[in-house]
Amino acid sequence: MRRLFDFTVAFIGLLVLSPLLLIIGIAIKLHDMGPIFYHTQRVGLNGQLFGLYKFRTMVREADVDAPGLTAAEDRRITALGLFLRRYKLDELPQLINVLRGEMSLVGPRPEDPRFVAVYTVDQRKVLTFQPGITSPASIFFKREEMLLTEDDWVQKYSERILPRKLAIDIEYFRNRSMWGDVRVVLRTISGIIN
To answer: d(Cα 14, Cα 11) in Å, to the nearest integer?
Structure first.
C-alpha cells in the first residue's frame, strides 16, 4: 500500500512539477554552466548504497575532499543555491529516487556513508526503514545548517545533532501509520511555505 502511494505521488508530482523542474534546470545551467544535478552516494534500506539526486546548489566539485554536509554561510553555496535550499526545491529530484524504489516520501533522511560508519548498534536500527524525502527529524531540524556555525561543525553534527535526529526518527518509524505519514508531508509543506 505504501509503495503504491509513494509511486503514485512521485509520478504525479514529477508530471505536475515538470515545468518548474525544467525552469530550475535551465537556471542552474545558465548560472555557471555546470551540471544541473548533484548525484551522491547515500546509505539506504539495510545499509545498501544508492545514488541520491538533488539539484546542484553549490559550486562545481564542492564536495571534493569536503564533508557531506553544509554549515551556515557555507561559501560553496551559490546565490541560486541559497534560494533553492530555502524552499527545499533542491530536493525535488529525489522524487526520481522514490519512483525507483530507493526512497519513500516519508522515511529517515539517508545519510552520508562516512557518518553511518560510526553509528552505534541502536542507531543502526534506522537502516531498517526505507529512507525518505522528509521525516519528523527533518521537520524538527528544518534549518539544520543554521546550527552548524562553529569551527568544529562536523564534530557538533556527529556528536549532538545526528544522535537526536536518529532518535526522533527511530521512535516515529517504530509506530508509523499512513495517516501519520500524511501529517508529516503536510507539516513539511507548511514549514517550507512559512
So the answer is: 5
DSSP classification of residue 161: I
Q: What is the mean pLDDT of the chain?
A: 89
In the chain, helix, strand, coil percent, each to 5? 55, 10, 30
Domain map (residue ranges) of the chain: 2-193
pLDDT of residue 7: 95
Does residue 181 have a pLDDT over 70?
Answer: yes
List, in order, residues 6 or more apart from 9 with CB less than 8 Å away: 98, 105
pLDDT category at 141 given cuts 50, 70, 90 is confident
**CA-CA distance, 46 to 110, in Å (whole number)?**
11
Give the C-alpha separation, 83 to 103, whole Å.
24
- Enter the DSSP assignment of 36: S
R_g of the chain computed on alpha carbons = 16
Residue 111's DSSP bridge partners are: 43
User: Can you tell me the mean pLDDT for 143-157?
Assistant: 72
Do the Cβ atoms of 37 and 55 come closer than 8 Å? yes
